[in-house]
Amino acid sequence: MNYVKAKKHLGQHFLKDLSIAQRIADSLALAESTSVLEIGPGTGVLTRFLLQNQLIQLTAIEIDTESVIYLKEHYPELSLIEGDFLNFNINSLFEGKPFCIIGNFPYNISSQIFFKALEHKDRIPAIAGMLQKEVAERLASPPGNKQYGILSVLLQAYYDIEYLFTVSEQVFDPPPKVKSGVIRLKRNTTQKLDCDEKLFVTVVKTGFNQRRKTLRNALKSLYNNPQATHPLLEKRAEQLDVASFVELTNWVASVKQ
Q: What is the total count of domains within the chain?
């Protein structure tokens, strides 16, 4: 298949099962016409199906020059940005209007992509795509297990997250050493958390940075009163859901005063 051969020499892994590409393209489950940004289209295996969806007004951003040349030749109708999503000014996209994100996200920067999307959560009602299975499971994980982490909490505060399906390594050329997972995030009704949101992020990150410790020990650098106490301090970070982290954030704010 030419879309595989075109980039195989770059040492990347390319999806060769078009039925999987179709399922990923459909995973946004759009109900109305929507602007969509595809991150890292590569040689367009996902792009071809996105362009066929009449509800999607597609723009793609690609950092690799050879991929850009290939895409311009094979998909001249595609609105294409040559650049790095992580350094791109999102505010310049789609005239400030809402848009969804989709992609076969590069494994090495997938977490960074979601952190950046989170900064623009009020403009991004949905995100869907494929990433390393372990990371996909982490984002969708409920509290109470080792997969649950910082990005799980921060994303779940504002998005409902579904793990949709697993993708075998055998549908790639060449096969990677890990399986992939496809997830979908849909913006929930939370406009603002009932706490100081910057402190919330600090509490979550600090708690998980020493996740084996109880929160009493993990968070002691955040408040100056060693006598102050709260029942949640006896738990570990992975045991708390979003609401509990909000409660704990408000407590930290009160004892810092």
A: 2
